[in-house]
Amino acid sequence: MTGEESSRRPRKIVHVDMDAFYASVEQRDNPELRGVPVAVGSPAARGVVAAASYEARKFGVHSAMPSVTAQRKCPDLVFVKPRFDVYKAVSLQIRTIFAEYTPIIEPLSLDEAYLDVTENLKGMEIATEIAAEIRAKIKATTGLTASAGISYNKFLAKMASDQNKPDGQFVITPKNGSAFVERLPVKKFHGVGPATAEKMHRLGIETGADLKERTLDFLVEHFGKSGPYFYGIARGIDDRLVRPDRVRKSVGAEDTFSQDIHSFEPAREGLQPLIEKVWGYCEANEIGAKTVTLKVKYADFSQITRSKTVSSALSAIVDLEEIVALLLAPIFPPRNGIRLLGVSLSSLDRRRSEVTPQLRFLL
Ligand SMILES: [Mg+2]
Fold this sequence. Notes:
Distance between the termini: 26 Å
Largest sheet: 5 strands, mixed
Strand content: 15-25%
CATH superfamily of the largest domain: DNA polymerase, Y-family, little finger domain
Bound molecules: magnesium ion
Structural class: alpha+beta
Radius of gyration: 22 Å
Helix content: 25-40%
Order of helices and strands: HEHEEHHEHEEHEHEHHHHHEHEEHEH
Mean pLDDT: 90
CATH class of the largest domain: Alpha Beta
CATH architecture of the largest domain: 2-Layer Sandwich
Number of helices: 15
Number of domains: 4
């Protein structure tokens, strides 16, 4: 199919998004947490909320909020340690369900994905029925609820999945796409972060309708490469394809410490759980890696990275530990207290060629 044909033919895109994912998994597995405001994350001084239950959201607690702020907004907030291995296992379950319907799946994170169901493996005509079936299967298999957005492009499908959350779905047809966008505040647009929203606000753009009034030249002048994207979505147009094989370029983990680090041994200890996390991910997904990068952020927020590339993929966690220690040693004594350390692996390769389809979606 040529690009022209693909953009002319109406597509059926479903965006599936688990409801308060990490928090819902914790409430599922621990009945004492049900009905209680829950934050997944560390309550420590520099911790942040990774996910908040709906009970917590009523108090204004949301993900990426500093834990201290969250606790202040909701004094009864219960903090739960994240269990990423469990979230990954659930993620694999939902992706297996998606794969019954279409091979064209683009995960955005563990709990969210775009599905192109224009041509689907069940021969179903109605995308809203596909979305309803998928949500029912997710509920039956995992005990968790998901919401879905159904539309003719990715942007609108993503916006639609938010409309009837939790445990709901919403469809935006080609006929009402443009009107839907006009009413939407731009700060809710996918692809418009807080900084861009603020810039739009300064330019007098508050809603999709305001955005639609601006010319393409104006949007390119003020938003550069994103200009054409904003110009399109203001009209309900988004030709981006659902990309099933978006392969990860790196796997990393980092941690901000509650107290600045000044010596080698505590730094090495602080790095150990990060090493285990990234190594565990690579093992689980059969990814080989040749490049190790250490990231160091100082108390004054300046940052350095140090990398080492080896000739063949690392074969054991001790090799990774050794390289990290080699990269770490020369930075001591540090010019300033160390606030954050991170480890990432890149130059990735799938270790085996015959990766199962389900696993492929995790990469
Ligand atoms: Mg979600």
